[in-house]
Amino acid sequence: MSGVLTGFFIVWALIGVGWIVGRAGVLGPHGRFVLNRTTFFVASPALVLVGLLSSNPAEVLSRPMVVAGTAGLLTGALLAGAVRLLTRRRGADLVVTAISGSVVNGANMGFPIALYVLGDISHAIPVILFQQAVYTPLYLLILHRVTEGAEGPQGLHGVLRSIIANPTIIASAIGLALAAGGVSLPEVALEPVRSLADMAIPAMLLAYGLSLHGSRPLARDDGYRGLIAVASATKLLVMPLVALGIGLLLGLRGTGLYEVVVMAALPTAQNVYVAAARYRAAENLARDTVLVTTIGTVLVLLAVSALLGV
Prior knowledge:
CATH architecture: Up-down Bundle
Radius of gyration: 19 Å
Largest sheet: none
CATH class: Mainly Alpha
Number of helices: 14
Strand content: under 5%
Helix content: over 70%
Distance between the termini: 7 Å
Oligomer: single chain
């Protein structure tokens, strides 16, 4: 449990620095944009590559991947069904609620939590691979259909192109191939990659802190408070329970079970907000669910740590 507190202290300290930097205007109006693009195109791929080179591909792509995929899809389907059955919300509101409650922040929060709480960033990789290769294309296609003509990737080909061009997917493919082949890169070649990887996590958290400055969450006029509460509760409570059940069914116990539940308890991904903004669909619902779950994750992980005895 002390590891969770220590990890979140580090995470929130860096987010707080980002908020202060945003408030002071140190990086100017485009600071968050530059940090996000730097981490997405440069630092995160380097972090994934370094993590995979020191991991066992069979472990990365085995049961943790199954848990991440099944928990995400099942939780999203359950939430969509509940919203459709119990409310009159349809279309973009329904889709954004479902993905807000089932898509985890595997990069911006997954890497820091995997490092500071679990001790190894490789625990976040199965979640990231599943979401970027499977879940993100799926919900982008659905959003495109329900918004009918909004700007964004056009159909299956557009989404597939975005996957193939995704630098994290490319780095994952290279890392898995090198690790599976037992290829050891010279230290002189790895050192620049490690230096870039070291920049990823602080830059992610600083960027998120920057995004919090000036925001006005949970505004009554939005009409999304109920859906935010449902999506947040599903993300923080239902999805970890689903992952726990699937992990037990797959024979995971002890540390292995704890790791997949921690990854399922991560907050809602900022990518959900990015997608909602791209399609002009329930943007504030996605943004505020990200914020609520990012705060609530601390309590959930403390409970997970206490219950699983890790």
